[in-house]
Design brief:
- It is a single chain.
- The chain is built from five helices and ten strands, in the order ααβββββααβββββα.
- It is α+β, with helices and mostly antiparallel strands and about 260 residues long.
- It has a four-stranded antiparallel β-sheet, with no helix packed on it.
- The longest helix is centred in the N-terminal third of the chain and has 68 residues.
């Protein structure tokens, strides 16, 4: 029994001793690992700081180079983050939103100068800016030009007859009445041609004022006349003279200026 008790005590002591040794080894290993991990982190931190210093220097160098060549960049670098303004009395203005209507004070409807005619071309679209004297519509002028050509042929013939009468009269051949009649025919044909040319010019419809083509309600092939100009034509609005009308609530009437 004494021997057996001795063996149990020895076993307990040996077991405790073994546990102490294992614990000491584990603590030493853990301390070494902690020491090694701390050293690695310190080294990594130093490396990152070195990289940060290097990047900061590169940024500073680039800012200096840009400041020499780019004035906008220089202003951005040297911009003040905070500015001060002296305190002073000032008029306070408050704005309100109102719905209103814009009325044009100067509106013109394009009309032909003559009796009108069939539209051959329209040179403006709705919303286009228009200048005074600009060609907007071209009317059919075929008949008027044919009349001008015929009158020119008659004028050439009348001029030839007059020249012959004049030569004969200079030689004291013929009568003065025949000479005057030949000259009258030439003058009348010239006046007729002038009127016909005016009719040809009336087939060109021009803008009477500058502004914007607010309405273009005419198409190629339609008949355009002074009677139809208000409904089927072109309306020019002078945008330099506009009037705005709006309803202001009563509680703002004494404060609106």
């Amino acid at each position: 029994m004494i021997f057996k008790h001795f063996n149990m005590n020895s076993t307990i002591k040996l077991t405790a001793l073994a546990l102490m040794v294992i614990f000491a080894v584990a603590c030493g290993s853990s301390a070494n690992e902690n020491k090694d991990g701390s050293n690695d982190k310190k080294a990594q931190l130093q490396q990152l700081k070195a990289q940060q210093d290097k990047l900061n220097k590169q940024v500073s160098d680039l800012e200096e180079e840009l400041a020499k060549t780019d004035t906008a960049a220089a202003r951005a670098v040297n911009a003040k983050l905070i500015t001060t303004t002296p305190v002073a009395n000032a008029k306070f203005t408050h704005y309100i939103d109102l719905q209103g209507k814009v009325d044009a004070q100067n509106i013109s409807y394009i009309t032909p100068r003559g009796a009108g005619g069939q539209v051959r071309a329209v040179y403006v679209k709705q919303g286009d800016p228009v200048k005074k004297g600009q060609l907007l519509i071209k009317l059919d002028d075929v008949l008027s030009r044919q009349q001008v050509e015929q009158a020119n042929v008659q004028l050439n013939l009348a001029q030839t007859l007059y020249d012959r009468r004049k030569n004969l009269w200079d030689k004291q051949i013929g009568t003065e009445v025949e000479l005057l009649q030949a000259k009258s025919n030439v003058d009348n044909l010239k006046k007729q041609i002038s009127l016909l040319n005016e009719q040809v010019g009336m087939t060109n419809v021009y803008a009477e004022q500058s502004g914007v083509a607010d309405m273009v309600n005419i198409r190629v092939g339609e008949f355009f006349s002074p009677a139809s100009a208000a409904t089927a034509g072109i309306r020019i609005v002078n945008t330099s003279n506009l009037k705005v009308t709006a309803q202001v609530p009563e509680n703002y009437l004494h404060r609106v200026s």
